[in-house]
Design brief:
Number of domains: 1
Radius of gyration: 18 Å
CATH topology: Rossmann fold
Strand order of the largest sheet: 2-1-3-4
CATH superfamily: P-loop containing nucleotide triphosphate hydrolases
CATH architecture: 3-Layer(aba) Sandwich
Oligomer: single chain
Helix content: 40-55%
CATH class: Alpha Beta
Distance between the termini: 37 Å
Order of helices and strands: EHHHEEHHHHEHHHHHHHH
Largest sheet: 4 strands, parallel
Strand content: 5-15%
Shape: globular
């Protein structure tokens, strides 16, 4: 049985009983690791036009997020006649695995993911999120948060239960270690954020081949341009999660390149981070995660 991951905002138990179809795609990521970018690439490959027929969140709903009811999400997906591509932040051990489905796990250097998460946290409308998920507002306003460098060092040091706090360093590496162990399966693939950043066309062509999608050669330049980070930021309102939970759509697309985490740490702190990561994940995964591209 899949493990049930639950937070205030999502519940992986909503996958139980989901009626998969032949050809479905599940995009499984940690927060701030290229989720929306991978969704956009899948949309462009499936529809083969930069002019998508609906906002990305409708084309690729977040199944286990509690801002919509389970019945609403299931009904939305049931109405879709295109090849479906579904968003989740649940690791693969929390999702039913079906041989008819392709599972894409998008990964990012954990330090860069953490820095992005730090900035993203102030761009979420907590009151709106709590309203949509039926949770009470915090009794007290949150305290002033730490400066980024202090926060990042605390994030590296945090001894979290990986299944309880998935956006902690242990949680990130738990998610990716599980996917890494499954990468030999014909329907599981890992996608690196840096490959999207450094060689977008190459990454898109590899995904098209993996998904069995044939794109006419003349269509490629327009599709690649539409997936470029700056182009997506310019049309951010079409791509950010719905429901009014994001305060500033443009800020949702903050940087789009790597190295932010390494820039903050001293050489000794970076070595400490690498040692911490090595205690939680296999060397092959870490070499792939940290490789310069």
């Amino acid at each position: 049985m899949p493990y049930r991951y639950r937070t205030l905002d999502d519940d992986s138990g909503r996958w139980d009983g989901f009626p998969f179809r032949d050809g479905d795609i599940v995009i499984s990521t940690r927060t701030r690791s290229g989720t929306t970018w991978t969704q956009m690439i899948c949309a462009l490959l499936i529809f083969q036009t930069p002019d998508l027929p609906a906002p990305l969140g409708q084309l690729s709903p977040w199944l286990d997020h509690l801002t919509m009811s389970r019945d609403e999400v299931y009904a939305l997906l049931a109405r879709q006649r295109h090849r479906r591509f579904i968003k989740t932040h649940t690791p693969l051990d929390g999702i039913p695995l079906d041989t008819r489905v392709t599972y894409l796990v998008t990964a990012r250097n954990p330090l860069d993911m953490a820095v992005s998460l730090y900035h993203h946290s102030t761009n979420i409308d907590i009151a709106r999120m709590r309203e949509l998920t039926g949770q009470p507002l915090p009794a007290e306003p949150s305290a002033l948060r730490r400066p980024l460098r202090d926060w990042l060092l605390a994030w590296i040091a945090h001894e979290a239960d990986p299944r309880e706090i998935l956006d902690s360093l242990p949680g990130v590496l738990w998610h990716l270690t599980d996917a890494w162990a499954r990468r030999g399966a014909p329907n599981v693939a890992l996608v690196h954020y840096d490959d999207l950043s450094c060689d977008l066309e190459g990454a898109m062509r590899r995904l098209a081949l993996l998904l069995g999608i044939v794109v006419p050669e003349p269509a490629w330049p327009g599709l690649v341009r539409a997936a470029a980070f700056d182009k997506m930021r310019a049309r951010a309102d079409q791509f950010v999660p719905g429901g009014g939970i994001i305060k500033d759509s443009a800020c949702f697309f903050r940087r789009g390149r790597s190295g932010a985490g390494r820039e903050i740490l001293t050489a000794e702190e970076f070595a400490w981070y690498r040692a911490r990561a090595a205690s939680m994940a296999p060397p092959g995964l870490l070499a792939w995660l940290h490789a310069a591209r």
